Structures are given as C-alpha cells and as structure tokens.
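TOKENISE THE FOLD
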Amino acid sequence: MERTKIKEKIENRKIVGTALKEIKCEDRDCPFHGELRARGRIFEGKVTKKFPRRIAIEFERRIYIRKYERYAESKTKIHARLPFCMENKINVGDCIKIQECRPLSKIIHFVVIGKIENKEEKVKKMEQKK
C-alpha cells in the first residue's frame, strides 16, 4: 500500500504516537509486521540524518594500526531502513539499534530494530511518574 493510504487509515482511526504499536503497519519491509527477516550483525549508534524511509546513523569504533602499534578511533556511517511503524518515534539525535538484513537497495543493508533509552531519559521518566 502507498504511504498516503496508510496515513489516511491512521488519521481515520484517530491513532497517534505510541498507539501505532497496536496496529500492524502494512510495510512489507518491516521486521515486526512485514516479511523482512533481520539476521546477522547488530549495531548501536546515533541518528545523524532522517529521510522518508531511511536514516543514517554514525558510531565510533577502535581500529588497530599495526605500523604504529596503536589504536585509532574511527567513525562509521551506515544507512538503515526505517519502518513506517517507527517513523514518529525516532528523530535526529536518538540512539537506536539496527540489525543486518538482506540488501534492500544499493546502500541499505540494515533495518531499525528499536530505540535505546539513555540513562538520562529513564531518570526523566521516573521523575515525571512521581
């Protein structure tokens, strides 16, 4: 189904934000509601850019340089598929978890699995409940 039709369905049912978990998104490339199987490597990183159906994440890793017998920190940028059911939850600057899947396009080989809550966010939620 087209995105506009799905958005119209959601607006018709008056569903917002977190209530999206209750409906199945009709996205074929969703690891939870669709046919896409997530397998392989798992990475955690920070969202740097957000596009309509994908996001770009960046994370640091340590690389050993044999010549100097030292470690250097390097940044890696990966593009991942953003399922329709998670579009409203994930924004630029959030920490997320992605997992490897089959190649979906020339640059997309990962899919978003979930959002990671930082300690600061957990503390804020606990304070709001009190």
Notes: The chain has two helices and five strands. The longest helix spans residues 119-129. The two ends are 43 Å apart (CA to CA).
